[in-house]
């Protein structure tokens, strides 16, 4: 009798201590769970071995990336149902150890072990970052992490990000349903950053983590500034240099493959750091802020655009998300916005404005997911591996929900290297950027 789905549902519900909100279809054709709900498809026994040998998020991620697990129906709904179950239970959720004290759970696990087949752990998918020994956030380890994330092919990023090639939160003056495009919203975000920095012709701008050159090109073309953009990705740098040349801006924009810690040609009038500081790490953040402070002239402005997590009661208990660390941003870390502001102040900056644009990132991510799904046949297997495309679809969809549910946020922090005179150079009226 085909009953693998019912066994799986029983185990999951015993582990979670609550009804499973999604349906399950197993490799033997059996189905179980609430009718009409999104379906978690367990394609083979290997998926079980991945979960048994690596219980938790990483085992699920490996099964998803390898194609052993899939979702039929709306992916956002499936993720929201599962995440909602976990988040709502919070600290009251039963741990695996507690669940295994239950004889019924132990019996179900033994049954899963029999269903899973020979007890050999499958190798991780090739898309998983290989962990190197040694200290985090050295220049060498940062180069390796950046390469894993960004050097997967510019054509793939063009498909996902669209013509703007901006890989950070867009700025939507009105909902996309009102007719605004992703490209318009990304242009508006670059212009917002430019206005907060008060860019004027002839100034020098350092764009830290310049990506594919969008901010550098915008600032030089629209505001007449001279820009140095730095990135650790060779593929990004090659793409950005071609854009600069095509725009006729080679006399005003220089793109370097360089660590921000090696930039030594200050002072700059302004610094933009858009979606880069997440790579810095808690141990290095004060160093990052101090280095940027030194590179600014007195009165110079920093615009730090950065994803933030919610603070924890015990900050020492913070753990990096296993899926994101293994498949998306190796060594990436998120900090609460208050911690970021404190570190910038400790480095000598005067923080003048903090703007949360959390909802804007959810809108942006949903557009990126739509782009990927529309171009799936081109992306999966031609531009990148099918596993890599699956990584990005899951990562972006789950992130959109996290922003919508206020599990993470994103903030633009404007800080000034205020001189001893106290003259910040900012307008008296808040958010009248000029």
Short description:
By secondary structure, this protein is α/β, with parallel strands linked by helices.
Question: Layout of SSEs?
Answer:
Elements: H1 4-16, E1 23-25, E2 31-32, E3 39-42, H2 45-53, H3 57-66, E4 69-72, H4 75-89, H5 96-99, H6 103-116, H7 139-150, H8 154-161, H9 182-197, E5 204-208, H10 214-223, E6 226-231, H11 234-246, E7 253-257, E8 268-274, H12 285-295, E9 296-309, H13 322-327, H14 337-346, E10 350-356, H15 358-374, H16 376-379, H17 386-404, E11 408-416
Parallel strand pairs: 1-3, 5-6, 5-8, 6-7, 8-9
Antiparallel strand pairs: 1-2, 3-4, 9-11, 10-11
Helix pairs in contact: 1-6, 2-3, 2-6, 3-17, 4-17, 9-10, 12-14, 15-17
Q: Could you explain the architecture of this structure?
A:
- This protein is of the alpha/beta class and 434 residues long.
- 44% of the residues lie in helices and 15% in strands.
- The chain has 17 helices and eleven strands.
- The protein has a seven-stranded mixed β-sheet with strand order 7-6-5-8-9-11-10. Strands 2-1-3-4 form a four-stranded mixed β-sheet.
- The radius of gyration is 24 Å and the shape is elongated.
């Amino acid at each position: 009798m085909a009953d693998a789905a019912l066994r799986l549902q029983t185990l999951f519900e015993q582990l979670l201590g609550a009804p499973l909100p999604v349906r399950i279809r197993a490799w033997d054709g059996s189905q179980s769970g609430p009718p009409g709900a999104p379906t978690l498809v367990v394609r083979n026994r290997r998926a079980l071995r991945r979960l048994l040998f690596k219980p938790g998020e990483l085992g699920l991620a490996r099964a998803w990336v390898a194609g052993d697990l899939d979702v039929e129906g709306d992916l956002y709904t499936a993720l929201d149902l599962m995440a909602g179950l976990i988040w709502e239970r919070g600290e009251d959720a039963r741990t695996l150890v507690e669940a295994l004290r239950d004889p019924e759970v132990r019996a179900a696990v033994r049954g899963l072990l029999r269903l899973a087949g020979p007890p050999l752990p499958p190798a991780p998918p090739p898309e998983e970052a290989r962990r190197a020994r040694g200290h985090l956030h050295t220049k060498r380890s940062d180069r390796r992490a950046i390469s894993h994330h960004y050097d997967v092919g510019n054509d793939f990023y063009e498909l996902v990000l669209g013509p703007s090639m901006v890989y950070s939160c867009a700025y939507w003056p009105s909902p996309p349903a009102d007719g605004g495009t992703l490209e318009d919203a990304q242009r508006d975000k670059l212009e917002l950053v430019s206005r907060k920095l008060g860019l004027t012709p002839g100034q020098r701008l350092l764009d830290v983590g310049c990506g594919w050159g969008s901010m550098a090109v915008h600032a030089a073309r629209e505001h007449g500034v001279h820009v140095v953009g730095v990135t650790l990705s060779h593929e990004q740098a090659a793409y950005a240099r071609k854009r600069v040349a095509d725009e006729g801006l080679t006399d005003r924009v220089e793109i370097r493959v360089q660590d921000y810690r090696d930039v030594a040609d200050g002072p700059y009038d302004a610094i933009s750091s858009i979606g880069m500081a997440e790579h810095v790490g808690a141990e290095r953040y004060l160093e990052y802020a101090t280095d940027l402070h030194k590179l600014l002239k007195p009165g110079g402005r920093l615009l730090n655009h950065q994803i933030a997590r919610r603070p924890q009661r015990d900050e020492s208990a913070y753990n990096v998300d296993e899926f994101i660390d293994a498949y998306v941003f190796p060594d990436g870390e998120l900090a609460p916005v208050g911690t970021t502001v404190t570190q910038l102040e400790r480095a000598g900056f005067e923080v003048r404005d903090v703007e949360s644009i959390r909802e804007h990132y959810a809108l942006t991510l949903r557009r990126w997911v739509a782009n990927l799904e529309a171009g799936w046949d081109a992306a999966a297997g031609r531009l990148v591996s099918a596993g890599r495309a699956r990584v990005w679809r899951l990562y972006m969809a789950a992130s959109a929900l996290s922003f919508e549910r206020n599990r993470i946020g994103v903030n633009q922090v404007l800080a000034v290297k205020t001189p001893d005179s106290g003259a910040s150079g900012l307008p008296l009226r808040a958010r009248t950027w000029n």
